[in-house]
Amino acid sequence: VQLQESGGGSVQSGGSLRLSCKASGYSYNKYTMGWFRQSPGKEREGVAIIDRGGRTTYADSVKGRFTISRDNAKNTLYLQMNSLKPDDTALYSCAAGFGSLRLQSSDFGYWGQGTQVTVSS
After folding, report:
1. What pLDDT score was predicted for residue 60?
2. How far, CA to CA in Å, does 119 sit from each of 8, 15, 26, 37, 111?
C-alpha cells in the first residue's frame, strides 16, 4: 500500500489549494480514506474522512471551507481547500483504513509522507 500526496504550497489568507493523494498497491475503493494535518508543537488533527460509500465527516474547524472527495477509477483522494486561514498551515497527510467516519488517526493503518500547506496573513 502506497499513498503519495501532492498539491501543497504557499498561499495567502483567503486563497485555495487542492490536495491530491494517489494510491497504489491495493483495492483503493474498499478503504475509508482521510486527510489529517499536523503543525509543529501540535498533535495530529483529523481534517476530513470519506468512506467507500462517499459519506463524509469534517472537523468543525474546516466545515464549509474544505471538501473531501474520491475518484475510485483513478485511485485518487482529493481535498479542496477554500478560504484558507493561517491556522490551516500544517503538513497534510492522507491515510487509508477500515474504520468508521471518526476523525481518529488510530483507525488508519496506511499513511503518506505528507504535503506542506503554508498560509500567510
Report:
1. 98
2. 10, 8, 33, 14, 23
